[in-house]
Amino acid sequence: MAMTKRTEQPEGNEPVNFESRSTGWFRSQSSSRPGTFRTVNLERLKLHSVTEVPAYAKALYDELRRIKRLRVAYYQDLRSGYSSVLGLRRNLIRLGIVALLATAISAAAQITGTKKFWFIDDVVTWGLGSALLAYALMTALSFYESATANSSAYFRSNAIIVAFRDLWEQYEFDQVGILAEWAAGADPVATKTELLATARALIAAMDTLSRTELDDWRGEVQTSLAQLAAIGKEGLASVKIELRAEYDQRLAKLEEAAKRAYVTLTINGDFVGEAELTIDGKQTIHTAQRQIALPEMTPGPHGIKASAKDKQGQLRSGAKWIDCKAGISEEELEVA
User: Fold this and answer.
1) Which end of the chain is more exposed for a tag (fewer CB within 10 A), N or C?
2) Phi/psi of residue 333, each to 5°?
3) Is residue 256 part of a domain?
4) In this structure, are 233 and 265 located in the same domain?
């Protein structure tokens, strides 16, 4: 996820570019860039040549503060990048409200029998469709959050920033206590040794926090990738099944349409002479026979109409729909 770059002024007014996690772990960076690879530069401090305890303590303090600020800045940048989860939560709430209201409107329209309201032609369909869309969006956003685990990363970044703060406060109190003992007459060499041990303990604790957070992040990424792979396989199998069913259904319709229906029609009624048959309002047949083999037809519904004159010369007629099946079948039509 791309993070917004920011600039902050650390020690020495040296500008800092805040990088995303995708680059912060692996790219070679200058010592001013935030990251978890920053270590104490003892060679630059040249502590072995510092004889005065206050100068020794200040050199260690300044270097550790630089390291702490760079590491905290790194996690602050991650937190800023993951803060979109707060907006995502608000959007899910809004969509849930929309879905509930749309469902309620649809139910009310069904109860009251309301069909049209304002610009909506079909209130029930509109309500159910809106609810379906809202729930679909909620599902998609929830899937995104589950796959990216942004909420977990956001709160994890907050937790590690607070942990760094607590460690730094403890270090400051420890250093004040050590310097107080030195001012009361403690051995300078022992004091410097204790100051160095306190600094080493702080760095070790910060390293442990970063290492633990990295392990958690790696585990989440691997779990997410495994879940996405499983969902992808399941979805692909489901789509294949749906496509196969759709293909088979269309093929069956094509095969059915390619078949022919052969219908023998019997005309009943009191009439004389020829009868006029009309098939689907288009094809006309004249016949004097009471039983006739109709021309071959496609399977499906067809409209048949017959008309003829009786003995008094009055026109009689009859009509019906017949559902033609593939193969041979028989139908009757009454002329009355």
Assistant:
1) C
2) -135, 130
3) no
4) no
Is there a domain that residue 2 lies in? no
Q: Is the pLDDT of residue 19 over 60?
A: no
Boundaries of domain holding 14:
7-248
Residues facing 287 on adjacent strands: 275
Mean per-residue pLDDT over the chain, rounded: 77
Across-strand partners of 304? 279, 320
Residues 92 and 20 in one domain: yes
| Number of independent structural domains in the chain | 2
**Which pTM does this prediction carry?**
0.52
C-alpha to C-alpha distances, 55 to 50, 70, 261, nearest whole angstrom: 7, 23, 106
Backbone angles phi, psi at 272, to 5 degrees: -130, 160
What type of residue sits at position 188?
P
Residue pLDDT, tens place only, 118-154:
777 777 788 888 888 888 888 888 777 776 667 777 8
Instruction: Say yes or no: 85 and 131 in one domain.
Output: yes
- The per-residue pLDDT for range 47-90, each reduced to its tens digit, is 777 778 888 888 888 888 888 888 888 888 887 777 777 777 78
